[in-house]
Amino acid sequence: MKQYVVDELRLGDHLKLEAYLDKHFGPTEINGIYWIPLEKKILSAIQSDHGECQPFYFAIVLESTKLVCELLVRTREKMKCDCIHYATENQRNSIIGFIDSIFEKLDVIA
Predict the structure, then answer these.
(1) Are strands 72-75 and 85-86 parallel, antiparallel or unpaired?
(2) Which pLDDT value is given to residue 31?
(3) Higher pLDDT, 98 or 32
(4) Which phi and psi angles does 23 have, rounded to 5°?
(5) How many CB atoms sit inside 10 A of residue 1's CB?
(6) For the chain, which terminus, N or C, has the lower number of CB atoms within 10 Å?
(7) What is the largest CA-CA distance in the chain?
(8) DSSP 88
């Protein structure tokens, strides 16, 4: 699995991230896993064409000492479809920028 990982989180930073993610993307169905919707403007052509599969998400897994961001863009509507694929370069940059902006907003140093 392709991932963007930020490790060696301090307890205080973990708690700040958890509070932020719970407020904006929670509550979680499975503890520590958050589904973050992708903006429509960065969908791939096939994702844009698959209206029945939208919205598309990437997952963040928050553990006690690390944040793992999966770079697989998926739908919650289907388990398998041609529109489920690893993030394009534009999507990957957007996902990493999204994570970096949260860290900056919360003054988390990683």
Answers:
(1) antiparallel
(2) 83
(3) 98
(4) -65, -45
(5) 7
(6) N
(7) 42
(8) P
Q: Are 91 and 38 in contact (CB under 8 A)?
A: yes
Cα within 13 Å of Cα(64), Cβ side: 0
Q: Establish if 110 belongs to a structural domain.
A: no
pTM: 0.89
Q: Characterize 51-82 residue by residue with b for buried, 16 or more Cβ atoms within 10 angstroms of its Cβ, and e for exposed.
A: eebbebbbbbbbeeeebbbbbebbbeeeeeee
For residue 78, pLDDT beyond 80: yes
The number of domains in the chain is: 1
What is the model's pLDDT at position 30?
A: 79
Q: Let me know if 31 is exposed, middle or buried by CB neighbors in 10 A (0-12, 13-18, 19+).
A: exposed
51: which DSSP letter? G
pLDDT above 90: percentage of residues in the chain: 87
